[in-house]
Amino acid sequence: MINLYDIEINLQFFSEEKTERATPKRRREARERGQIAKSREIVSAVLLLSMFWAIKLLSKYLYQNFNIALNRFFSLYYYSADLSKNGNIKEFFYYSIELYMRLIIPILLVSAFASMFANYLQVGFLFTIKPLTPKFSKLNPIEGFKRLFSKNSIVELLKAIFKITLIGYFIFRFFRDNYNSIPKLLEMDLNNSVAFIGNSIISIGFRVSIILLILSLFDYGFQIWEYEKNLRMTKQEVKEEYKQIEGSPQVKSKIREKQRQLSLRRMIAEVPKADVIITNPTHLAIAIKYDQDIAQAPYIVAKGKDLIAQRIKEVANKSVIPIVENKDLAQILFKSVDIGQEIPEDLYQAVAEVLAYVYSLKEN
């Protein structure tokens, strides 16, 4: 009688709990869908840091162009009564656009490059339009309400509150540390006051950007953990996926083709070690080796027909291996002896005569 309590059953195979790491196929499909581990916080922090760095690096250039613009605007009253004549409005409009482009484009270029670089470091090169595909589930108000109060929404809200608090703290510290210097702005000339305000803004920006960049690294770690957790699979899913891969005729065909190629390469690599090549002469080629330390009788190291036979003879010619034509012997060896096997006793005499002929050629 069988005692059911003595039978061990692995209940994990019946569980829907996702405990297994994602397979390469699952990861590849997720990447194609645009599902990747990526932190937007890193991109934002790098973008902010690069923007302030560009402003600091180009501060002299920006100040000169801004100063020229102020002089141009303040001198506007000289022809204000005549703006509608001689294209003055058009000229002033074009100048304003040109000035705006000269001030903004360098900063935008640096920021755009920094953003692309931050994205590339996280996910590499990826182009997919699947995330842009409309999903009608997103139009469902009930699902939208659920997303509004989901765990991810709460985490994002807490991160936003923390960042706002941090930025507010640094601004507060700036005003506290410069409490006595701010009123003196009224006594400074325009150049000094602009320089003081600009340096202060850049200083605050650098501090905030660096702190946000450090925090974004923790967020990136969290995104990787969340990504891995969402990709996890049940044991049954892993089992079914491997069945699909192994059962695919295309995959099996590619595996067999790869195995044939590897076997052919190994066989061709043994041809230079042969003592003689026996041919049909055009359709068959059999490479024979005799080494008393390895086998008691001559054995076949390579054989083939048609194209493979031609390849064996080409390698033999390059390696200066003798090629002997013997139609009957070549056919019998090809049909009855596999690669690596010794020749049968009934063929000793025929093969010995061929080897004796080859050895005599070497002696001469």
Largest sheet, spatial ordering of strands: 3-2-1-4
What shape does the CA trace take? elongated
Which structural category do the helix and sheet elements fall into? Answer: mainly alpha
Report how far apart the termini are.
Answer: 83 Å
What characterizes the major β-sheet? 4 strands, mixed
What does this structure look like?
There is one protein chain. Helices cover 63% and strands 5% of the residues. The protein has two domains: 218 residues, no CATH class; 98 residues, secretion proteins EscU (name from scop). With 364 residues, the chain is mainly α. It is elongated, with a radius of gyration of 40 Å. The chain has a four-stranded mixed beta sheet, sandwiched between helices. Strand 1 and strand 2 form a beta hairpin. The N terminus is likely disordered.
Which key features would you list for this structure?
about 375 residues; mainly alpha; name from scop; 2 domains; 12 helices; about 5% strand
